[in-house]
Amino acid sequence: MKSTSVCVIGAGGMGKKHIASLSRFGITRISCVDPDKSKLNAIKANATDISCYTNLEKIQLEDIDSFVVATPVNTRMELVKYIGSLQKPIFFEKPFALDIENAIELKEYIADASKCVVGFPRRMSKKLHLLKNAIDQLDKPYVYQSVFAQDFKKYRPDFAQTYYASNSTGGGFLNDGLSHHIDLAMFLNDAPLNNINIMHGNMNLETTEVDDFAHMSFDIGSKSRGFVSGNQFQKPNDDKVTVISAAGTFYFDRIKDTLTFQDNDTHERVISSGGENWELLLDRQIECFLQLVGHNLLDENLCTINQAIECLKIIDCKQSN
Ligand SMILES: NC(=O)c1ccc[n+]([C@@H]2O[C@H](COP(=O)([O-])OP(=O)(O)OC[C@H]3O[C@@H](n4cnc5c(N)ncnc54)[C@H](O)[C@@H]3O)[C@@H](O)[C@H]2O)c1
After folding, report:
1. Pocket test for ligand 1, best of 31, 71, 78 (most atoms within 8 A of CB)
2. Is the shortest distance between the CB of 13 and ligand 1 below 6 Å?
3. pTM of the entire structure?
4. Cis before 95 (ω within 30)
5. 144, 189 contact by CB (below 8 A)
6. Closest C-alpha among 267, 256, 286, 233 to residue 119
7. Strands 66-69 and 5-9, how do they pair?
8. Taking each helix axis from N to C terminus, what angle separates 100-108 and 305-315, rounded to the nearest 10 degrees?
9. Residues whose CB is less than 8 angstroms from the CB of residue 264 and which lie 6 or more positions away in sequence, other chains included
10. Pick from 1, 2, 3, 6: which is nearest to 88 by CA?
11. What is the DSSP letter of 177?
């Protein structure tokens, strides 16, 4: 496995993180492609043994066993037309595509979509697996709520110069932050989300044409109801899932790294606490991808192309501004 050869396309924020994960798993044959030489120099400064290229066409494709695509979604059609017919595993950063039409067209260029997955790292949280099991055992309707908020000016001060700033490059809160929590709602509830309503708009982030907040409500199967809300200007950050049932309430807080349960006014029972940071979730995700590459094993927690397309279908339910 360690001798497998992985090509990371896109050496920006996420490309760098995936290279770090691959290195932690002892992968020594890593190549990296980015037209921006300054990004490649930054990769080289940390790992001199990574082969860097400004153009995918300079790579011998037969030497590559798998690809990690960490470029903005508007670049993917060109990339997939070039590598999609090779039938090699591809890990795509989320969201899979610009929108639903773009996703369906992209999939047509992928010869073996069963070997391709999309990165939604919350799916790798053991605490969320415990919550998923707990939801599975609820026999009465419940209310599912999740909130996600990030102070983008602080964590991505250059956002106005990145893909985030334009709808044409897949930017804005719906594709960026909300897509994580739409996927999570589908993953945790394991039932169709229907009757979707999305309120969205731009409230605070200046210099962009894109949405910076959204509230989404939906039905879960025939009994339960859900609500997902978020924005990218909030201080402090937020990343929570609450499941309210007649038997009691589960609280997952990714930032405090806790899963608790409470069925009275005073005492909170800790189900699981500590030990899971974002880096670990990214590592687990890459570890699962390497299992797919090396052993053709699709971990049930990885997001498939079809599931990622379902996520884009939900985003597509937004009402026009
Ligand atoms: N999983 C997460 O939590 C998470 C977080 C942030 C971003 N993302 C996703 O990751 C993707 C990239 O985001 P980012 O924050 O790393 O962006 P970024 O702007 O930091 O990096 C993107 C890189 O892609 C390069 N690039 C552009 N076109 C290219 C091409 N044709 N070939 C090779 N490289 C090319 C750019 O030069 C840039 O270095 C987006 O789809 C985004 O939605 C995921």
Report:
1. 71
2. yes
3. 0.97
4. yes
5. yes
6. 286
7. parallel
8. 160
9. none
10. 6
11. I
Q: Three-state DSSP class for 176?
A: helix
Q: What is the pLDDT along the chain (321 residues), one digit of tens a residue?
A: 778 999 999 999 999 999 999 999 999 999 999 999 999 999 999 888 999 999 999 999 999 999 999 999 999 999 999 999 999 999 999 999 999 999 999 999 999 999 999 999 999 999 999 999 999 999 899 999 999 999 999 999 999 999 999 999 999 999 999 999 999 999 999 999 999 999 999 999 987 789 999 999 999 999 999 999 999 999 999 999 999 999 999 999 999 999 999 999 999 999 999 999 999 999 999 999 999 999 999 999 999 999 999 999 999 988 654
**Ordered domains of the chain (ranges, CATH):** 5-121+281-304 (3.40.50.720), 126-272 (3.30.360.10)
- Are 34 and 11 in contact by the 8 Å Cβ rule? The answer is yes
Q: Is the CB of 16 under 6 A from ligand 1?
A: no
The token duo for 202 is 């731009």
Q: Please work out whether the CB of residue 19 comes within 6 Å of at least one atom of ligand 1.
A: no
> Helix, strand, coil shares of the chain as percentages rounded to 5?
40, 30, 30
Residue 217 to residue 229: CA distance in whole angstroms: 9
Residue 175, CA distances (Å) to 12, 180, 301, 313 in order = 18, 8, 21, 11
Q: Are strands 193-201 and 213-220 parallel, antiparallel or unpaired?
A: antiparallel
146 lines ligand 1 (CB under 6 A): no
Closest CA to 255 of 280, 272, 274: 274
CB count within 10 Å of CB 220 equals: 23
Nearest to 80 by CA among 69, 72, 65: 69
